[in-house]
Amino acid sequence: MSKQILILGGGYGGLLTALTARKHLSAAEASITIVNRFPTHQIITELHRLAGDTIAEQAVALPLSKLLGDKQVNVVVDTVKEIKPNEKQVVLSSGQVQKYDTLVVALGSETNYFGIPGLEENSLVLKSVSDANKIRKHVEDRLDAYKKSGNKADATIVVGGGGLTGVELVGEFADRLPEVCRSKGIDFNDISLYCVEAGPAVLPIFPKVLIDRAVTSLEKRGVNFITSVAITEATKSSVSLKDGRTIESSTIIWTGGVKGNPVVGSSGLAEDRGRSTVTPTLQSTSHADVFLAGDCAVVFPEGGDRPYPPTAQLAWQMGETVGYNLAVQIKGGVMDKFVPVFSGTLGSLGRKDGVGTIGGNATQLKGLPASLMKEASNIRYLSHIHGLFALAH
Ligand code: NAD
Hints:
binds nicotinamide-adenine-dinucleotide, FAD/NAD(P)-binding domain, 25 strands, alpha/beta, four-stranded parallel sheet, single chain
C-alpha cells in the first residue's frame, strides 16, 4: 500500500526532500504532501535585493505548484500549528489534520530578539518575501516623510546585526538609496545608514582581509559601522546602544540572529535549545519515523561539538539526504549518513561588489568576481530545482 509522506515546509530543506524522494519513489509507492505557509518557494538568499528594490518579486518567489507540478506532489498552503509525533498527526492553522506514515520537518528558523526591550515591536526583519516588501515600502515611506518634515529620524536607517544578512542588506541600500533619493528630490548626504554589530567585527565568518575589504567598500558608499557595541533597546523612533549612545531612527531592521522554530521545540521531538536532535541519517533521535532538514535540526559533525551553521546550502543538502533516506525506509537498503559539502560562502556588497571564500578559506574572492560568483550560485540552485523553467512560464 502507498505510504503517506508528509513534508512540513517548502523552503530549501522541504523542497529538496520532495524532489529527491520523488526521484526514488513512484506515486504508487508513496504519496507526498508538502505543507507550506506560502504558495511559493522563496529564495531567501536573495531577499536583501527585493528589500532594496533591485530584483523582481517573481525572481525570489517561485510557485511550488510549478516547481512540483509534474512530480505528483500535493501542495497544501497552510501554517503548521502543532506536531503530534506520538499520534502521527499534524494540526494546521485551518483546523485541518494531516496524518502520516513518515514525517519530514523542515520548518526553518525564527528571528531571535534575545529579549531586547522594544525590539520585536519596533523592528522589521528579513525572513520572507513579505518582510522584504515591508522593508522596501517602509524605507520609501520614511523618505517621503523626511521630505515633508525634515525629521532626521526618518532619514536614518539602522541595521542591527553585522552577519551576512545585515551586511548584504546594508550593501543593497548603499547602492540603491542614492537613486531613490534623487527621484524624491532628497540629498543622499542627508541619509544616515548604520550597521550595528555587538561583536568586534562584522562578517566574522570571513578572514580579516575580506572583512576589511567589505567594510572599506561600504564605508566609501556611506555606511557607518559601529562594532563591539550591542543594541540594548528599541523604540518606534530610536535605538539605544550599550555604550549609552542613542540613534534617532524610525527604521530599525533586525538581523541579529535566529533560533529554532517554536512549533518544533514544543512538539515532543527530542530537542536541544529548540532545534531537533538528529541521528547521522537525519532522523529524530526520539522518533525514527520523523526526519529533519534545515535550520530546525541541530546537526553536529562526527566527534565535533559545534553544530553546523543554519545555512541554505546545508538545508538543500540535508533535503537531498532525507529524500533518499525516505525511499530506503520504504523500500529497504542502507540509509545515507549526512555528510555536508562546503562549497564556500559568498556575500554581496551591493550589485557590483562582494566577498567570498571557496572551499573553506582556501580561495578568496573579492569585487566583481565574488558578486558574479554569487549570481552564478543562485542560477545553479534555480537550475537544480528547475526554477528557471518555472520563472520563464
Ligand atoms: P548571524 O547570527 O550570522 O549574525 C547576526 C549578528 O548579529 C552576529 O554577528 C551577532 O553578533 C549580531 N548581534 C547579535 N545581537 C546583537 C545586538 N544586540 N546588537 C548588535 N548586534 C548583535 O545571522 P544572519 O546574518 O541572519 O545569518 C544566519 C545564518 O544564515 C548564518 O549561518 C549565515 O552564514 C547564513 N547566511 C548566509 C548568507 C550567504 O551565504 N550569503 C546570507 C545570509 C545568511
